[in-house]
Each structure stands twice: as C-alpha cells, then as structure tokens.
Structures
1.
Amino acid sequence: MKPSLTALPATELRRLIGTKEISPVELLESCIERIEAINPAVNAIAARAYGRARGEARAAAAAVLSGAPLGRLHGLPIGIKDLQDTEGLLTTQGSPLYRNHVPAADSAQVALVRAAGAIVTAKTNVPEFGAGANSRNPVWGATGNPFNPSLIAGGSSGGSAAALACDMLPLCTGSDTGGSLRIPAAICGVVGFRPSPGLVPMNGRPLGWTPLSVLGPMGRSVADARMLFAAQLGVDSRDPLSHALDPAAAASTRLADLGSLRVAWTTDFGQCPVAAEIRDLMRQRMAAMRHLFRSADEVSFDLGEADRCFDVIRALNFLASFRERYEKDPGQLGPNIRANYEIGSKMSLADAAWAHAEQTRIFRRFQETFRDYDLVMAPTTPVSPFPWTQLYLAELEGKTLRNYYHWLALTYFITLVTNPSISLPCGVDAHGMPFGLQVVGRFGGDIGLLDSAAALEQAFARIDGLGRPVPDAAKLSKPRPDLKSIVTAAPDKPDI
C-alpha cells in the first residue's frame, strides 16, 4: 500500500498535477492500488471503471504536457454514489432490480464533474435506493466503518464517506434527503456538505419542485469539498429548482472571522432523540470551542410537528418513485422502501396540504434564529455507530422510535428548513468513533457557511481533542467477508 500520495488533499493533488509534479496516471494507479488493498476490509466500492479511467488518465496527462487548458478537477479520480447515473458504468441503486443496469448517459452533476476533468474511477455503496443510514444492500453487501468495520458507515452516502476516510479516492459525490451526506461524513470522520436546493442540478427527481433531496460534495477537508462543490454547480433546465452560484466564489478558500460570529447551539432541537452520552459530548465540545466566538448560547427551538411533517413529505416522494413497482410486487422492494411507501399510501390530500403548510411555518420560525445568530450548531448523529447487521436504530435508551429513520431527526429537521448545512469532524466519542458537528448557515448562505466551516476546521486542528480523526490502516489489512454475506443478486459484470 502507498497511502502517502492518496492521502494528500485533493486541492494539493490538483496543484501537483497542474505543475507536472505528479501525473494523473500515477495518481490513478495509486488510488487503484489503495482500493484493492483496503476495500476488502470495508466494502465501500461498488462497480469499478478502471479500464476507462486509465484511458482518461493518459489523456489527462497528455493535456497537461501539451499546455491545454485544465479543468477545476483535472486528473483527479472520483467516486460517484451508486444512486447517480454514470454513462457506460453500472448504476444499481443497491437494488436487484438494477443489478445489471448500465445507463446510456450521465446524470447532470456527473456530466459536470467529468467536464471539470474528474476521472470517474468507481461507484460507491449505498442502502437500497438510498433509503436509510446503513449502507447495505443485496447487490454489493454492507459497508463497514473504517474505524471498526463491524459498525455502520452511515448512509446513504456511506460508501463515499468510507472511501474518503480510507484514502482510496480524493473526492466522492453524495446526496442528502434526511442527512445522507452529513451522517456518513460524521460517522467516518470526513466532511459532508448539504448545499441549498437547486445549486447542484438534479435531473432525475420525479417531484422536481420538492426541495427535500439535494446532491453535494464530500471530502476529507472543507477545501476539498468546496472544490468539488464548485465543479458540481450548474443551471439545468431539467431541474425546476436550479439556479446559479458563482463557482469561483464557491471554490475560493477564505476563513471567516470566528471572533465576530454569534453561535446558537442545541443538543436536540427540543425534540430529537439523542443519547445522553452524545448530549454530554456536545456540551463538552461547545465548552472547548466557546472561546472562538463572539458568543455561543444554548438556544431553544420550536420546530413544531417536524417529525410528522417530514413523514408526509418524504412519503410523497416515495409514492411518486415507487407506486408502479409496489403495486406490481411489493416483495421486489426492500423493507425500508416498503415502509416509506406504506406510510404514504395511508395519507390523504389533506395530510399533504398540512405538511407543506407546516414546513412553511417551521421554515419561518427557524429563520428568526438568524436575527440574533450567525450559525446554528448541533450533533450530526444521536448515537455512536452501531453494528451494520442492525438495519436501523429501533429504540434509544429504552424508548421505541417512531420508524426506521426517526433516529436521523437531527439532520432531517434541517432538511425541512432547507438551510445549507455541513458536518465537520470534531474529535471522537467515548467509544473512539468519529464525532461530527453539524453546522447550519443562513438561508441561501452557502458561501458564508463554507467560509465559517473552513475557519472552524483550522481552529479545531489546534484544539486538543477536536481535530479530524484518521483510521488505522494497519487494522484494515484483512478482508471482511461478512460484509458480503447479504449479497443475493451480484452484478454479472461489475467492472469496465
């Protein structure tokens, strides 16, 4: 294994490519070597595109030598979440229904990152159809956490987060409905950014006017994530929420003045299920960083009936996506998909109208917080990672949770208000597992949030116990065949 090159920041790798100090071919081969050495221990990677990637790496190297204009991501290997279409490369969505599905075209955002010079090297693992925060499915198996492969890597962008944490790839894409960028980033010790809806185009949403789901970047640092974010930006007429943001402003590395910022923080937004040890840890983290800010106050929030509201709006999306398949044969869908669909099938038009009105009320109350504060902080996840063999968290400290995704309330509450949010590595918990700090910015304030996150990341690196944890690669040298034990429908041709 050669972790030295693959462990470098994506921003530094792009600089080294541009100055001819490394070749895209050399970098790609280092990533492939790293994947083949480490992936058997965590199972983060789904389909591979090594053959095509090698050809693109050679072309990228030739472009550098010829003095041709280079894209923002020129020559950088990238992992694409297996919910996103990749032309000529398997996109299974973790479902047996798509185990041999090879799209004829890239999704809008994949086309953008390719146009920026990224080299699509592999797909990254997900829960079936992205439902849930445990990245396991019957096509590829389960993704284990890089810090302990017996535990979950989060989801639904769990494969991307684990691949980044293990230095397999410098950049990976993700998506987020109820926390799918933020949760795996928190659990694996990397950065996951949920941008404002419409900035990264989504051409495949059946309900195009609904802002619940977004696409976004993941990286090992804020600078890496925002470099990818800048390449993902674009206006696309297939996405009715699509609108423009200056890529140069998105990519520019700036540090906010933390000393001028007023921070509101909470352990649970007033009603989210959160373990006592995570509440205590959040208080400890805030005490350790309080001196960085102008003020840092524990604040009460009124987010109304956010759980029920999210139930309805989420279910509407599942009704739109899965009605035909469910009515034909519900058994062809996994338990999480069926649960979501069945929640929606029992609802009425009055329920839908109430939910959209309640979301509007929650949104307006939440924005009032920013009259007095510049950032909102909370834990990203309510518990330390649990075994991947447990599909989801059914109860917490003796209390039964409402459904399979109730334990994700800390992140889906922020989904409802649509503010940009980011999960930053912030040390480890009492079990030695990464702790993620969720930081929420102003409505539409993506650039300001990224600037604040960059400053926080730099400050955390100087404060004992707050820096980004790194998994021990030596403990990932042995394959974990148990992660493949749930595979029932492996693809016929997983590689190109």
2.
Amino acid sequence: MSERDEIRSELRESLQRVTELLQKHELVESLVHRQEGPRHDLVESIVHKANLAELQRLLEPLHPADIADILESLPVKQRLMVWDLVKAERDGEILLEVTDAVRETLIAHMDEQELVAAAEQLDTDEIADLAPDLPREVIQDVFRSLSPEEREQLREALSYPEDTVGALMDFDMISIRDDVTIEVILRYLRRLDELPDHTDQLFVVDRTGVFKGLLAVNRLLVTDPDTTVADVMQPAAARLRPQQKAQEAANAFERYDLVSAPVVDDAGELIGRVTVNTVVDYIREETDNDMLSAGGLSEDEDLFASVWKSVRNRWTWLAVNLVTAFIASRVIGLFEDSIARLVALAALMPIVAGISGNSGNQTITLIVRALALGQITATSARKLFAKEIGVSAVNGLIWGGVVGIFAYLIYRNWQLGIVMTGAMALSLLLAAVMGVAIPLVMQRLGRDPAIGASVMITAITDSGGFFIFLGLATVFLV
C-alpha cells in the first residue's frame, strides 16, 4: 500500500470511529431521556461526559486537516457536536482547512469572543484568508489586538483580490543583506527560536530593501564562513508581483519545482513570499470549484446543507437546462411529420446528440485546462480551432461511417446510413466549434470558463444534433 493510500485508510478509520461514537452517544442519550427517576439528570450527565470524553481523546492527536475532513463528512448536528470538542487553541487552524460552506456553519455556531480567540492564533496572512467570513466586529477586535506592523500587513493582505498572488502572500520570511558574510548569517539564524515553515532559501536584499537574489539553506551550510552573500547567492527562477493572477504563481511553482518564491513590488522591493503549501491549497480549491462549476453547481454548497439552501444553489442552471430542453423539444417538433413517416429517426437521433455532446465536452475540457495554464494566445486560438475541426471531421467520418453501417444493417436503408454519417460528421464539427468558442468567449467577458460549460455545450449539441439529423433526413429521405 502506498503512503497516500495508507493516509486515506487511516482517515477513513478515524471517521468511522467518530461516527460510531456519535451514534453510540445519541443512542444512549435517547435511552436515558426515556427513563424517569430521581437521579435522571445525574445519569444523563455521566453518560454524556463519558462518551464525549472518549470522542475528544480520539480527536486530540489528529492533524487540523484531518479534523477538517471529518467535519466536512458529518451532518450539521454531529459536525457542531464534534466542533465543540475541539480544543480552542486549534480552532483557527481548522477553520482555515475546511471548505467555505462548512466554515460558514462553524462560524455561525461561535460567539464573538471565540472567533476573536481563534483569529488571534493565526498569522496575518491567515487572518486575511478568514476575514471575508468573519463579522465586522470580530475583525475590528482582531485589528486592535495586533501590533502596528501586523496591522499594516493585514491591511495589505486584505487589499488584494482573492485570486491574486497578494492574497497568497506570506509575510513570515527571513531576508538578509547582500554585503554581509556567511558567518554573520549563521550567527543570526542561531539566535532565532525557529525558522519559518517551508524555509528552503533566504531572500537577499540590498540596503534599501530591493530584492537581489536567493541563498539556498543547503548552500549556506557548506560555504566558507568568510564568503559574502553576494558571491554565493543565486538569481530567482520566478519573481512574483502581488497583482499577478494566483494561477500564474501556481504555474511557476509547477514549472520550476519551487518550495518558496519572492514577491516584489513595482520598485523591486521584497514585500513577502509565496510557499508551496499555499499554492497546493489554491490548486486544490480551484480544481474542486471547477468540477462543481462545470456541472452548474455552486462552489459554496455544503454537502449536508439544508434542502432549501441546496435547492437555491442549484436552480439557476436547472432553469437554464429547462429552457434548453424546451428548445430541443421544439426542434424535434418541427420535424414531427418526418418522424411519423420514418419511425427509425426517433430511435437514431439520440445517438447523434449523445456522441456530439461527448465530443464537445472533451474539447471544452481541453480548452478550459489550457486557459488555466495560460497556454492559449490570440494566434494559438485560431490554430486550435483548425486543429479541433480537423479532429472532429476525422472522428465524424469514422464513427459516422460505423453508425451508418449499423443503421443500414438494422433498417436495410442505405440512404438512412448515409444521412447518419453526414449528420454525425456535421454534429461533431458543431461540437468542436462550440467547445473552443464557449470558454474563449467566457474568458473574454471576464467570466470563469468552467462555469456551466458542460451544461451549455450539452444544450447546444442536443438541439444542433437533432436539427442537423432530422433536417438531413427530411431533405433526403422523406
């Protein structure tokens, strides 16, 4: 078993154990409630404390990320019961790990003092991540508890949109001057209690704070102590700007295998860093959001949200689907006479729409991914159109021919087989054009290309496929 599978197995076991303890607690509690007697309250208190103490012992050694996964996997009532058992000093870390929807339910269950205490455990960049979900009064109290330097860092972090490098930026880093020796740096580091997390390199600046380069920790340890930093520092593989898109930072980390990267302002001064753990969290969140958006689901829906809230989160794209379904039905209605004369059309037309829809989803997935990686330019977009049209034309002729042969063998009508081949080729061409056009147009309009993409392409290929197939059949067969 791989290490990853082993971790998943341990997490499943923890979740199962937590669920069993919660069910046991609820069962015993219900039995005690049914009994009456002079010591009813005492018995209930003892049973309550015994079960919850065992549950607390199980949760105590778990990592905040594992507790977050358990909370996300529990219905709201049980989730809040577990949340009450988590030690107060870990509240902030766990709130950072859970999804936005689950975080909303946990914060709603906490009073103002608890929220302030949870936020005060965190660094300024982490507080900025929580700030959009916290009440204004809590943010004001947290501001008052920070030092002047931390307040300025928090203001700066909050000034950047959430999809930018500035929102991912960490202020906890070690910067050194380029005109000092390695010996001086080593003495300085020994005076620190600990290094910031993910410190694989030190950031070199000049007297004015302008970023100059990087000094890897492993290089620091093997270099002659009398050597100056300027002689051994290395240029940065990537210099990030706080206004850059977060996706650009993710691409840089993937391309150069980075653990940390400097963030500089327009004057070149070092203002922070981005670390790999933050980038991984961003990529995971974006991947989850894209998967939900592609199906027309809201990214802020809790798995165990109330029925009414889930209905409200889903009805937008269901309404769009209803409209497109009516359009498709009217397209079919235009050819009712043709279908009545040749019943085989009713049996064959879902094949054309289904294959073209699948082909369109393949194309749209490829284009959305390329847009996310920044691989598409104005010039390459035209080449992509040509390439996808070519792929669809070949697929249409091959698979259209296969379907045409089957249609002939089943219905003994060679004209029907030719119509099927032609309809398949044209429908796949339509799917290719729309599969490239939809995400490009949405990006041009400033929208997320993944939002509702599969819903839109399916609607177009269904209506278009029906129209193409039934139209050709009407012209050549009826």
3.
Amino acid sequence: MMVHRIAIIGGTGKEGSGLAMRWARAGYEVIIGSRSASRGAQVAQQLNARLGLHSIQGTDNVSAARAGDVVVLTVPYQAHKDILAEIREAVQGKVLIDVTVPLNPNDVTVAHFPPGGSATQEAQAFLGDGVRVVCAFQNISAAHLKNPDHPIECDVLVCGDDEEAKAVAIELAQAAGMRGLDAGPLANAAVVEGLTPVLIGLNKRYKARGAGIRITGLADPQGK
C-alpha cells in the first residue's frame, strides 16, 4: 500500500504534532485534524514555520480523515468514542492507526483496561470490518517526538489483525525515526497500551523524561 498523505486526528496535541513534524520531514503530506478547522490550520502553520516546509495542512477532523490515505488517531481516551463516531464514515476502506491509551483516572501509573479490552479493540469493533485498525505509537514520549532533531531509541510495537495494515504502521514508524516491530494480533493491544502507565510510573519514580521500550535479541535490525 502506497502512503502519500497522512491524516492525524488530534494532531494539535503534543503526540500528534510531534508525529506530524517527523512525517513531514520524511516527505509525506500531513493533514492535521481538529474539532476546529481554524485551530488545525493555525497549528499546521506553526509547525511548517518551525520546519521550514509547506507540507502540513490543518482542517477539521472529518475533512482530514477523508483526505488521508492513512488516518492516525491521537486523542485522549475520554474523547475516543465521540471522535470515532465523528469520523466513522470518512475512514471506511482505510487503515486507522490508533495511538489512544486508556489511563486510570485515579492513578495514571496503574494499568487500566476498558470494557472492550483495549482502546484499539474498541475502535475496531465500533468502526467495523471496513476499517483496518492497528495499535501503534502508544509508548513513545511526546517530548521526544516534539524535537524532530532528537533521535528516538525506542521501538514501536504494532498490533493488528491485518498484515498489510501492520506493515503500513511499521513503515511510518521507520519514517519517523524509530524501529517498528510486529507485536502480533489486535488482542495484544491491551498489553501494548498497558505499558504506557508503566512507563509513566518509571518516569516519576526515577525522575526521567521519556522512558521507552527497546526489544533486544532480534537477529534482524528491522525485526523481521
């Protein structure tokens, strides 16, 4: 699958805007989606100015989802269902990469599993078989992403039930300067999402910023 244009829903946030800059630098067209088209356009202009490029556009969520070859969802879990309902028709026939993490409202360092098992599984169930949903990028620090000159020594664990969709996410991870690894079926998304609160806890306890995951012992550098 050839990917030229990436739509990032929630692209005005820290995670989404960081990914937007890295993909724009890698030569992709990026469309930032926001609840407000003017807000999306404003952030896109700021990111373009920072990069010295003109490849990032901004608009509303639905318009962005319609325009993207691939759609990346980077929103808080509290907004997850509402945003999915908003873009449901626009993402049919596409790959959707869900970056959402359900965090425990009482303690963000304790794993929290939603009724559907994981946010990604809930997205797949809600959107239906017409959308190929994969889980990726949950364990990457936004602080690292926001500095496009900073090398990221973290692996991106990718889960999904469609091999081509996982391959797309792995390609985009590599384009953003990270190693993407096939972490198995969508059922494993609960484990990948659950690692985020573990990393938040490590950051707090060890006074670190941006702890990440690195898989060792793989014979091939691409994890194949």
